[in-house]
Amino acid sequence: MGTSRVTAEARRCLARYRFWQRRFLAAPADPRARAAFGRAVAELCRATGERCGREAAEAASRPQRGDTPRPRDIGRLRRPLADNRER
């Protein structure tokens, strides 16, 4: 997926990943939580195209182009292209 837009599927997988991550960290000896967390990691990796669960979570939570403007870009006016040329 790389630089492409994060889909609703990747966001859904991220929510599931975080849910099971919290459950697993609260009870690491619980085999059900461990197995479910492993499945959530694999599903998130498939959805984002990353190989590592942590990298997949970062990729899915990172704001993508076209989502919302960054705070520093709000209200900024761009000069027309003609004004940007060197004289």
Describe what this molecule looks like in 3D.
This protein has 87 residues and is mainly alpha-helical. The chain has one domain (1-65). Helices cover 57% and strands 0% of the residues. It contains 4 helices and no strands. It has helices at 8-26, 31-48, 53-61, 81-84. Helix 1 runs antiparallel to helix 2 and helix 1 (8-26) packs across helix 3. The longest helix has 19 residues, at 8-26.
What order do the helices and strands come in, and which of them pair?
Layout: H1 8-26, H2 31-48, H3 53-61, H4 81-84
Helix pairs in contact: 1-2, 1-3, 2-3
Q: In angstroms, what separates the terminal alpha carbons? A: 42 Å
Radius of gyration based on Cα positions: 19 Å
Number of domains: 1
Q: Give average pLDDT, whole number.
A: 79
Number of strands: 0
Strand content: under 5%
In this structure, how is the largest beta sheet organized? none
**Uncertain stretches:** 1-5
Helix content: 55-70%
Helix and strand run: HHHH
Shape, please?
elongated
Structural class of the secondary structure composition?
A: mainly alpha
Count of alpha/pi helices: 4
Please sum up the structure shown.
57% of the residues lie in helices and 0% in strands.
Essential attributes:
87 residues, mainly alpha, disordered N terminus
